[in-house]
Amino acid sequence: MKNLSLLTIIILAFLSVKIQAQSNGSITGLITDATFQQPLAGANIVLEGTSFGTSTNYDGEFTLKNIPGGEYSLSVSYIGFTTRIIEIEVRPGTTEMVNIELQDNFLELDGITVQGIRQGQAAALNQQKTAVNIKNVVASDLIGRFPDQNVADALRRIPAISIQQDQGEARYVQIRGTNPNLSNITINGEQVPSPEGSVRFVALDMIPSDVLSSIEVNKAITPDMDGDAIGGSVNLNTLSVRNRRVLKATIAPGYNNLAQDLSPFGGLVALTYGDRLMDGDLGFLISSSYNNSNRASNNNEMEYDSGALQELQLRDYELNRERWGSVASVDYQLGDQSMLFANMAFNYFTDTEFRRRFTVETDKFTRELKDRLERQKIFTFSAGGEHALGQTWKVDYMFSYAYADQNTPYDRNVAFESEVAAEDVVFDVSDPDYPQFSSATTNAYNYSAYQFDEFEESSEFNSDQNYTARLNLTNNYTLGNDISGELKFGGLVRTKEKERSPDIRIYGYDGNFLWSDVQGSFEDDDFLDGNYANGIGLFPDPDALENFFENNRGSFDAEFESEDSESDSEAETYDATENTFAGYLMTELRRGNLSGLIGARYEFTDVEYSARVVEFNEDGDYLGATTTTGTNDYSFFLPMIHLTYQITPLVNVRAAWTNSFAKPNYFDLAPYRVISREDQEIELGNPALEATTSMNFDLLGEYYFNSVGIISAGVFYKQISDFIYVTSFDFTETGPYTGYQAVQPVNGGDADLAGFEINLQQQLTFLPGFATGFGVYANYTYSWSEAELTSADGDARTVSLPGQAENTGNFALSYEKSGFSGRVALSYAGSFIDEIRDVEGNDRIYDEHFQI
Q: Number of C-alpha atoms within 13 angstroms, CB side, residue 51?
């Protein structure tokens, strides 16, 4: 009620402003480049000598409303183009239409124009320069200059962003030292559901980069954006047609010989077509991209207990990945300031993986083969409109549907074991990166000694879908003669449904299942660059395993382990429903060189979960599973202030104070329980988890080069409360399990995160002759964090936040001249804690990453 009262006061204060709409007029228009007739997004529009100003949208369009009648000088500026000033008369009660062409200044010393190369970068920088908030923009032209086949790869080029890799490809995005769950991903402004079973964040390696027009990273959000964005909000703008026909085709074959058993050939094919019909009133665009690649990797993984190595895993992966993305858009202009639109995006990703794993423990050797097919898809559809309501008001609305799923039709794992006398295996950790092992009695590469242990075949289907309706109203007003403003308010309703349903089937074998029945011939002669003399050895063949299973299904079915299969499946099954209601109010104000935004957002979410309680008795026998439910709700009041001071037309100083949040991951909230009376252990979800909240401060200075470039530096600080981590403790709930050892996600205390970032992009056109073609793209971010939590033994300890890498940076040197374009790029991200565990020595660390 306190928050609602404060919001009411703010609303009444804004609505008490005198809106001077009588006897005023408007200016609307289109800004294009003179050479290619392409709209210029982010152009700065100013009525000289007044406080009236705005910037063009993605389609190069602008509108200035509620302007007193009279004669004015309209100034249009754009980085990389010559500023143009035209005289215009505004008449009361009318809208003046202007179409202005700007001439680029991309001419090199030898007279060769390079508009096509640098125009995309110019568009991104202009949008960044004229934005009301702190954000980075990457245009499709710049994305195409790097070998970035997915969105996560493209995002790694942006300051203060680090990436988690998977099989050599960027996958999860971490903004300003926060883990992926603390950031928001949207497509065309609508939240993207997650295809994965337990988390909210999205693996961006499944979305190809070449179906996008731009990527926006909002590091300081505004009230009209979703508030669950502590790290920031990434918006993916899909392609759409502007004011002329578009036809683009890409064929990019590729070769790599990493995978012995898979084809070395792959590549990319993409096609885009769009046009405007009916005298330009109707526009449409379709674009599709397909990429196929084979990949392979080696790795080792170690498990320690109190500093002693307990388990060493040597792993070899071979996999095939297919990535397909399609987008479609259509818009219809009903009038000069009225239009309808619809956008669709479909992304489909398949990952076929063979994993060979050799595990060394102190008392046994295990050889396992994993053969898995995983399919993911994300579908988003949105439709809406924008309409002018008289001279000062505008309404826009959007209805959207977003769906994601992950389907694993098969995941087969077979394991063979070779027993070793207790403690007979000795580890040598003199080189901790490549620990060695030895056994006095057993040869780990004597395959006849391996006995069948277990065969598991599973499938899983996860789905996540959103239904959203948004409405926004905007009003232009003036205060006196020197302050112009824009009042905006609106809200949304969103319903979310999430389900996970695994089907795990575990088999023994009624008979004699021998290693020789399925042994393959695959060998890795240079496993981990030869750091293990005998390599990883031989493993079962995937085709032989599948044939043996199908031909001997009766013998497997006879030893079907129904209790283990059911208990493992039930433990991970859940479904969830979330309803979100949000409203916001904000105003932008402009006086001379100072502009700002003040406003607030209110969000309320109620959640309902259904999960399973799985229990085993004192002898370890499965007792069954029962359904349990849980509910929770969250409310957030999020005030925000953004200020921008334009020292010169090319120099900005920005400051922001924002508030944001992040809801817990889905499975962390599910009220599941796995109870083992034999071991007196209990693993459980936590439907009472609080959401993580953050108060954020930003300060940034920007200098834009007229030759298309930027140098910027900034600092940021986040005061975070109720961050979430998994811990173990003595279960204290009254009942039969009091005193059990429990594992559960819980809220931590407060955490601090701070850092600074610097960024440089510049074409070195001031150099003489041949050197005019060089360009530099470089950025560096330093971040620091500290969080307090209580360990399993009750002692408080200080940790850095999961996902926070101390140092990240990029450097690229490009050369573009006389029809040639090329670049060398380097990317670095430091190590960070990936997972906080019960004690410091067991925390999981994600190592530093360097890539050329």
A: 20
**Distance (Å, whole) CA 237 – CA 232:** 16
Whether 747 contacts 722, CB under 8 Å: yes
Distance of CA 25 to the CA centre of its chain: 43
Report residue 750 as tokens: 């407060």
Q: Quick check: helix, strand or coil at residue 791?
A: coil
Higher pLDDT, 171 or 274: 274
CB 79 within 8 A of CB 704: yes
Q: What is the arithmetic mean of pLDDT over 575-581? A: 95
CB 677 within 8 A of CB 615: yes
Cβ(317)–Cβ(296) below 8 Å: yes
Question: Contact at 8 Å (CB) between 121 and 127?
Answer: no
The residue among 8, 397, 37, 366 whose CA lies nearest residue 189 is 397
Phi and psi angles of residue 637, each rounded to the nearest 5 degrees, phi first: -110, 120
Q: Which comes out higher in pLDDT, residue 222 or 103?
A: 222
For the record, the structure tokens of 829 come out as: 């991200």
Residue 494 has pLDDT above 80, yes or no: yes
Average pLDDT across the chain, whole number: 88
In terms of Cα–Cα distance, which of 345, 390, 39 is closest to 207? 345
Q: Is residue 344 a contact partner of residue 378, using CB atoms and an 8 Å limit?
A: no
Beta bridge mates, 459? 503
437-446, long-range: CB < 8 A, 24+ apart: 437/312, 437/360, 442/365, 442/418, 444/358, 444/360, 444/365, 444/418, 444/534, 444/537, 445/534, 445/537, 445/538, 446/418
Helix (H, G, I), strand (E, B) or coil at 104: strand
pLDDT given at position 466: 96
How distant is the alpha carbon of residue 595 from its chain centre? 30
Q: Residues 6 or more apart from 736 whose CB is under 8 A from it?
A: none
Label residue 769 left, alpha or beta by phi (over 0 means left) and psi (-120 to 50 means alpha).
left
**How many residues would you count in the chain?**
852
What residue spans of 61-157 are helical by DSSP H? 115-130, 140-143, 151-155
- Exposed e or buried b for every residue in 787-816, given b needs 16+ CB within 10 A? bebebeeeeeeebbbbbbbbebbbebebbb
- Is the pLDDT at 9 greater than 60? The verdict is no
Classify 177 in phi/psi space as left (phi over 0), alpha (psi -120 to 50) or beta: left
Whether residue 195 is predicted with pLDDT greater than 60 in this model: the reply is yes
DSSP codes, 475-504:
EEEEETTTEEEEEEEEEEEEEEEEEEEEEE
637 Cβ neighbours under 8 A, 6+ residues apart = 3, 6, 7, 600, 601, 602, 659
Around Cβ 600, how many Cβ atoms within 10 Å? 20
Distance between CA atoms of residues 799 and 786, nearest Å: 6
- How do residues 505-516 score in pLDDT, each as one tens digit? 999 999 899 999
Reported as half-sphere exposure (CB side, CA atoms, 13 A), residue 394 has a value of: 22
pLDDT at residue 357 is higher than 70: yes
pLDDT of the residue at 13: 44
Contact between residue 659 and residue 694 where contact means Cβ atoms under 8 Å apart: yes
The type of residue at 798 is T
User: Which structure tokens are listed for 547?
Assistant: 């044939």
Answer left, alpha or beta for residue 718, where phi above 0 means left and psi between -120 and 50 means alpha. Answer: beta
Q: What angle do CA 659, 664, 668 make, to 5 degrees?
A: 165
In this structure, is the dihedral angle defined by the CA atoms of residues 433, 302, 726 and 658, taken in order, positive or negative?
Answer: positive
CA Rg value for the chain = 30
Question: How far separated are the first and last CA of the chain, in Å rounded?
Answer: 54
* pLDDT tens string 295-344: 899 999 998 887 889 999 999 999 999 999 999 999 999 987 899 999 99
Q: What share of the chain is helix, strand, coil (3-state, %, to 5)?
A: 10, 60, 30
Q: What is the pLDDT of residues 689-716, one digit of tens each?
A: 999 999 999 999 999 988 788 999 999 9
